[in-house]
Every structure is written in C-alpha cells, then in structure tokens.
Specification:
By secondary structure, this protein is α+β, with helices and mostly antiparallel strands. Helix content is 39%, strand content 21%.
C-alpha cells in the first residue's frame, strides 16, 4: 500500500509514476484525495460533537445537585448520541472505501525503472555461451520421457493440463535441485522455513495479491466455517506475513528467510504450444528468498538477492541472461524487478527462473510491519524477495543444455553429491 501522505502531498508525481506502468489510475488517485478530505472533515465534526457530549455529561450531575431540571438537556444528549453513532457508522464506511481504493493502487516504480511494458525490458548481461550441438537436439519433453524422468500422460490423467509426475531419477533429480538450493542458502545465513500451504485471507492482502488478483489463486471452500483461505501461489506470500503486526528492532535487521514449497497457480488462459511440458504448470516446486531490511539497506539487499539467484544458475553451468524489467512488467506489489532467465534451446528463448524484486515499504504498510530506528522512531521495514530457484524451468534447461548425442544427459557437477555420485542419466532401455 502506498503512503497516503505521499498521495496527498505529491499527487501528480504519484499519477506520473503509475503511468510508467502503462496504467491510468488518475481517477482513483483523485477519489482518494477527495475521500480523505471528507474523512478529515467528518472526523473533525464527530470530535466536536463528542466534546459537546462530554461537556454535557459533566454538567448534568451539577444541575441535579442544584435541583435544576435536566429533561431538556438529557433529550438533547440522546439526540446528540444518535447523531454521533450515525456519523461514526458513516466514517467507518468511508474509511473502508478509502482503504479499498488504496489497495487498488500498485506500487510505484523506482526512479531507475524504465517506463513501458515488457517490450521495454532491458537485458543487462549474459552468463556463458549458448550451447552448440553437432547433432539435432531434442526438446525437454522428449528427453524427459525417453529418460523416464517425467510422466506427462499420467500427470494429465491425475491433475489435468499443466500437471506432471516425476518418476524415478526424475524425482531424485528434482529433489537434488531443491537440496542444492537449500544448502546454498543455509550456507549464506538464511533461516530455513517450511510454512503452511493453506493461508488465511490476510496473507494475500499483505502480499499485495488481494483484492485485485484474488481470482488467480486456488480458494479453499470449508462447509463448516466462514474463514476464507487459499493455497499459496508462492512462499513469498507466507514469508512476508511472518512479522505481520510486529515491531522489530533495527538490530534484528536484515532478517533473511528461505522457504521450500510447491506453488499453486491457476494460470488462467490457454497454454501456448511451446510452453508444453514443465514450462508452465498449475503446480511446481520453488525455493524462495525473502529479506526484511531498513530503507537504507534496501538496495544492497536487492543486489544481494540478484547475485544469489545468479550464483545458483552459474554453479549449475547454465547459460542465462539477466533482464531489468520495465515498470509495466513488474508485478503489482513491486517497485523494481530483475529476472534471471535461463536459455531453453528447443524454444530458442530465455525463460525466467527467478524474479528478484524490491517491494520497498509497500507490503509492510499493508501488514503494519515496523522497526524502531536509532532515535526510537517507528519506521516501516522494506521487504524483498527472489526465487532461489524455481525448478520447473531449471530441470528442462539442464536436460536440454546438457544433452548428448546418444540421448543421455550429463548431470551438473554440483548435483552429483545429491545423487550418489551419478554423473550421467541414460535413456531407458
């Protein structure tokens, strides 16, 4: 959520920043300014009436003591109390309307973020060379099937389109990737978290997914309860809520967490033919990094997350590029995002395996997460996140970039200790 004071004091600058996302929410911003003016006026009127009521309350005992008739004053008090109650109800409704409008505004892009949509994304650098093959390479779907790693047909039978089953060495390779990622993050000082997959509604609101994107997640219907719950689309949704409603000390920051979870995405819309296999699915595994920092430490934390995500792909020996996303391609809650995009030879394109993003104080304002600075003053923390990594595109990249002419796939060296020293995956006989 944006800072209301910033909207009121620098209204045009806020509008211009939102325009960088190729969004025009001028009417919403204006409505917020108007509603806040009404809210302030109403609060002032209610406070005056409450002061008058308090004065009358003190006067009545004095009048009774001197034998004066309080009938008229009591009637006036009753009428005043009814008016206050009516105005309080109006104020509550107005504040709720204001909050909903505030929730509908995205985070403001950073000053260093390019305006425009994804066509304005800027490739920053690449790592390694695109693999060259002296033979006709196979795509990851055919490779995974011939190696017995993935069962797409039975996955679709169980879960429909966008579902698959890891089998045998496919399960072990997936588990090896996750263990490699987790061990690297723990060595870097991150605390390992296994959060619940079923979250309460407030988690989605704080993360910035709700209310605007509530239909993009899987909802949980409970016939015995009115509690609204959903299945997490990413572990970030849980991790940025760990300290919801808390006041931290500056000495506690930065806080660094990683979590492993499956991620559940509705992924509305049709699947493109080139995104078959594991490239886009309704459930996939991911290790997520999240940091809580001070405002001063925010940019350094962002660069650290980008570097850590890159390091994992580098250690796997995969060719990738780093892209700086334009404002319109950054997610709703994020002020700045860099994508680590791995090369998929069969598709001839790069696919994102990690998005490193800085939400600044946007999520903290929604979740009321603060810390005390050196002067004892309360400040909102900054929250940042990055995938570290998502496996559903890393595994296809490995089998395609490391494939051999005989249909085998060489296993990256860093994964071999997690696979009992195995160095090559051989096709099934």
């Amino acid at each position: 959520m944006l800072d209301l004071k910033r909207i009121l004091n620098d209204t045009q600058a806020v509008k211009d920043a939102i325009h960088k996302r190729e969004m025009n929410l001028d009417d919403t911003v204006d409505a917020i300014v108007q509603l806040d003016a009404q809210r302030r006026e109403l609060i002032g009127n209610v406070e005056k009436m409450k002061a008058e009521r308090n004065a009358c309350s003190k006067k009545i005992p004095q009048m009774k003591k001197t034998g004066e008739d309080t009938t008229e004053l009591m009637a006036s008090m009753k009428k005043l109390a009814d008016t206050i109650k009516e105005q309080d109800t109006k104020l509550t409704a107005l504040q709720e309307e204001l909050q909903n409008l505030m929730y509908s505004l995205p985070n403001l892009p950073g000053d260093d973020v390019q305006a425009g949509g994804k066509e304005q994304n800027i490739p920053d650098h690449t790592f390694g060379e695109k693999p060259e093959f002296s033979f006709t390479p196979k795509n990851h779907v055919d490779l995974c099937e011939s190696l017995g790693l993935i069962d797409y047909e039975r996955g679709a039978k169980l879960g429909g389109n966008g579902a698959w089953i890891y089998r045998g060495m496919g399960s072990r390779l997936e588990w090896a990737l996750l263990n490699f990622f987790i061990s690297e993050h723990i060595a870097d000082g991150y605390e390992f978290i296994l959060p619940p997959h079923m979250l309460n509604w407030e988690c989605g609101t704080v993360a910035g997914q709700f209310p605007k994107f509530a239909e993009e997640v899987y909802h949980i219907a409970n016939p015995t309860s009115t509690d609204k719950k959903f299945i997490l689309p990413t572990a970030e949704t849980a991790l940025v809520n760990l300290h919801r409603g808390e006041i931290l000390t500056k000495d506690e920051l930065p806080k660094k967490y990683i979590a492993y979870t499956p991620c559940y995405r509705r992924e509305a819309g049709s699947y493109r033919s080139e995104e078959r296999g594991m490239i886009r699915g309704h459930q996939f595994n991911k290790v997520e990094m999240v940091q809580y920092t001070t405002a001063d430490g925010s940019e350094a934390a962002f660069q650290e997350l980008v570097a850590k995500a890159e390091s994992l792909v580098q250690k796997l020996g995969l060719h990738y590029r780093l892209s700086r996303l334009a404002a319109g391609d950054c997610s709703f809650s994020m002020s700045k995002t860099y994508d680590v995009e791995v090369w998929i030879p069969s598709m001839g394109i790069y696919k994102e395996v990690s998005s490193a993003s800085n939400a600044r104080d946007y999520q903290a304002r929604r979740g009321n997460i603060k810390y005390r600075d050196e002067d004892g003053k309360l400040q909102f923390v900054h929250t940042l996140n990055a995938s570290g990594l998502a496996t559903s595109r890393v595994l296809p990249a490995i089998v395609e970039q490391y494939q051999n002419e005989d249909g085998s796939v060489t296993i990256p060296e860093v994964l071999r200790p997690f696979l009992g020293g195995l160095s090559v995956l051989e096709p099934k006989k």
